[in-house]
Amino acid sequence: MLTPESVGTFIQVGDDDPGLLHRMTVKKQRPEKHDPSYAHGLTSTKRMLITRGNLDRSDDVQLEKGQTWISISSPSEGTSRVTVLAPESECWDQRKATATIYWIDARWQFPGSQIVPAGTPVSLTTRVTRAEGSLPARGWKVRYEVQQPEIATFAGTNGSSVAEAVVDENGNATV
């Protein structure tokens, strides 16, 4: 279920399409979207692959037996909180979980690759614009993090592997 203050609506609830024998022997309710903010789902009886219907396998999601899924969409920015309940779970302390989704209207262009001699300072600029209208996302923060701080750090940060920059009036965040 979506909490009342959430943006967005449920689009579809997962259905692993169990076989005829399973449907005949197990009397369980089928997954169903009751309204835009409430759905009833079931965990999968088998391992399956969720695909977006294209040839790109990198955006597919592997669903394991015992898992389920739900798709949600939002036409506006904001926060969605999806709470799931598993009332028949044997682990009473794990019967409820909440996931938070932050919806933003943005496009970003990461800095290009740079090859420089060791020790040479380099500026990194990420361009951030609003997706609707391509206006600069002025005031937004961009966080850069070096994944291997033993190799590089940010100048002027006392060796920190993290740096933040605020998007300026041109849509650029530079460190």
Structural features, described:
The structure is a single chain. The protein is mostly beta strands. The protein has two domains: 9-103, no CATH class; 105-175, no CATH class. Helices cover 3% and strands 34% of the residues. The chain has one helix at residues 20-25, and strands at 9-13, 32-35, 38-40, 48-50, 61-63, 70-73, 78-85, 96-103, 107-109, 125-129, 141-145, 162-166, 172-174. A three-stranded antiparallel β-sheet has the order 9-10-13, with no helix packed on it. Strands 1-6 form a two-stranded antiparallel ribbon. Strands 2-3 form a two-stranded antiparallel ribbon. Strand 2 (32-35) and strand 3 (38-40) form a beta hairpin. The chain is elongated, with a radius of gyration of 22 Å. This is Repeat domain protein.
Oligomer: single chain
- Global morphology: elongated
Kindly give the count of domains. Answer: 2
Main beta sheet: strand number and arrangement?
3 strands, antiparallel
Helical percentage:
under 10%
Distance between the termini: 41 Å
Number of alpha- plus pi-helical segments: 1
Low-confidence runs of at least 5 consecutive residues: none
* Computed structural class: mainly beta
Mean pLDDT: 88
Q: Largest beta sheet: what is the strand line-up?
A: 9-10-13
How much of the sequence is in beta strands?
25-35%
Compressed to H and E, one letter per element, the order equals: EHEEEEEEEEEEEE
Tally of DSSP β-strands: 13
Using the CA coordinates, give the radius of gyration. 22 Å
Protein name: Repeat domain protein
Organism: Rhodopirellula maiorica SM1
